[in-house]
Amino acid sequence: MIPCPPVEWRQPAEPPAEFKPMPAPASAPGYAAQLKPSRWGWVAQKQWCVWVERGEPSNRWNQRWQTAVNAALATWGEQVRLIRVDNPEDAQLRLWRRRPPLQNNRASHGRALLQLQQVQRQGRSTPALEPLVEVLISPGQRQAAIQATALHELGHGFGLWGHSDRSSDVMGAVPGAQPALELSERDQQTLQWLF
Length: 195
Prior knowledge:
22% of the residues lie in helices and 22% in strands.
């Protein structure tokens, strides 16, 4: 079976009317207690169909962005199975090379946006509920900053909807003097708890 069969159709899923997701217990490892479930509950899966926007290969700014984003994907790929797809319609996570729009009058170098959708894929008899995460990473940064931003926003995309209180964690709310370019032990513990 193809791991990411082509999508025949997709439509937004409505959150359940009476569902109240349970937060993580205070005793959860890492910083899991600081995460918040979505309106649909905890959105986590060990395999993701991923699409990455491509730009002009001869453009050095695009090359820098691609290198940084690919390094971030390789880091997360040690924890989560990532399958690259050529068509954005077939992806569960789409990584875009663009500056996110202002949110609450605040600029950001990256943003992850989550939807859940009913998706019918070729060769499957019934539609399934799947996440669709749009990750926007601004190209206008140093390469290490692009990589750190991509690591952070991809962490949200893979289910870590919240922040750590430590800048040494990839999911730290406030970056430290040096960008976090590797998953900390707490990042890994939190992701494993989520799974």
